[in-house]
Design a protein that fits this description.
Elements (H helix, E strand, L loop, with lengths): L3 E5 L4 H12 L3 E6 L12 E4 L5 H8 L5 E6 L5 H11 L3 E9 L35 H4 L3 H15 L4 E6 L1 E2 L9 H11 L3 E4 L7 E2 L1 H13 L4 E5 L7 H12 L5 E4 L22 H5 L7 H11 L6
Parallel strand pairs: 1-2, 1-4, 2-3, 4-5, 5-6, 6-10, 7-9, 8-11
Helix pairs in contact: 1-7, 2-3, 3-5, 6-8, 8-10
């Protein structure tokens, strides 16, 4: 019998790649989105058009749709979203894979305890405040990591769903990356501008969209629950990324260490004042084989150099 999978938010970035991975594996796939972003899945998937943050709309949309063997939730950003998921899917799912983030460790940056193990965050003893206005746009970016951590806390403490929270490393992607972070490095090298980088050169963990999709698919096939870090082998500093971009482009990497605070505004994305990396020990112990970061980084950079179609 074919397994039934639901992907909440599966029409862009690594969500799109995950849907394709599931289809290739022979699963019956349902994609739930707001219906704003187009895709090329055609009739290969079932579709649900719904506002994921609207509890009543979610309950109506999934009423009578049966159970799912696995749900991949790319759109759970707060305990409010987690509570909606519990209301809709309690008793109806075998595994619930929440896409979380390395940013849940942001509050530990200055503690200098990297690489971060999953159990550095005690989900049993933190508080997820469902009364806080997590959906207010004023907080969506500044409290992104805190909101994701609160969603993990809510799921863990309620125990209603069999949740795996996949803490994804910083994402380096091609032109489909709506954040434009890696693109900013390409533009800098292309224009010959130097990279002003932190003298501490903090190392961090990264992943590419294809790797994330593969990791999520792998997690969906396992039996463990709880938090798990997802990243490539190896770490990168901002200077490493700058030099890798220059190498792929065949240019000289211009750079200058920043020793004072006056130039803080010109620091590039992923330039951290201390190491901000995750440990992969748990994933490895469970059988996951992570790719090396330099296996895919040159290809991701090269994608930015291709003419736009």
């Amino acid at each position: 019998m074919q397994k039934n999978a639901l992907v909440i938010g599966g029409t862009r970035f690594f969500g799109r790649l995950l849907v394709r991975r599931l289809l290739e594996a022979g699963l019956n796939v349902t994609v739930a989105t707001r219906g704003i972003t187009s895709d090329d899945f055609g009739s290969t998937v079932s579709r649900v058009t719904v506002d994921r943050r609207d509890k009543v709309a979610m309950e109506r949309a999934f009423a009578g749709r049966g159970d799912f063997d696995v749900i991949f939730d790319q759109m759970c950003y707060s305990p409010l979203d987690a509570r909606i998921s519990e209301s809709v899917f309690a008793g109806r799912v075998g595994r619930y894979i929440m896409a979380s983030t390395i940013e849940v460790y942001a509050h530990l940056l200055w503690a200098k305890r990297a690489p971060f193990d999953e159990d550095l965050i005690d989900l049993s003893n933190e508080r997820a405040n469902p009364e806080f206005p997590w959906h207010d746009e004023a907080y969506s970016e500044s409290l992104y990591g805190e909101a994701k951590r609160a969603a993990e806390v809510w799921f863990h403490q309620s125990g209603i769903l069999p949740v795996v929270s996949v803490r994804i490393g910083h994402i380096l992607s091609g032109p489909d990356d709506f954040t434009g972070r890696l693109r900013s490095y390409v533009d800098r090298v292309s224009s010959g501008r130097p990279l002003f980088y932190s003298i501490n050169k903090g190392k961090s963990s990264f992943f590419n969209p294809a790797g994330i999709a593969d990791f999520l698919y792998w997690a969906g096939q396992q039996t463990f629950t709880g938090a798990i870090n997802a990243c490539a082998n190896g770490t990168l500093t901002a200077l490493d990324i700058h030099q890798a971009v220059a190498s792929v482009m065949g240019r000289e990497a211009q750079s200058e260490p920043m020793t004072g605070i006056s130039r803080a505004a010109v620091l590039s994305p992923y330039d951290f004042p201390a190491d901000y990396a995750m440990s992969s020990k748990r994933a490895i112990s469970l059988g996951y084989k992570a790719p090396d970061v330099f296996q895919w980084l040159p290809g991701v950079i090269a994608a930015h150099l291709k003419p736009a179609r």
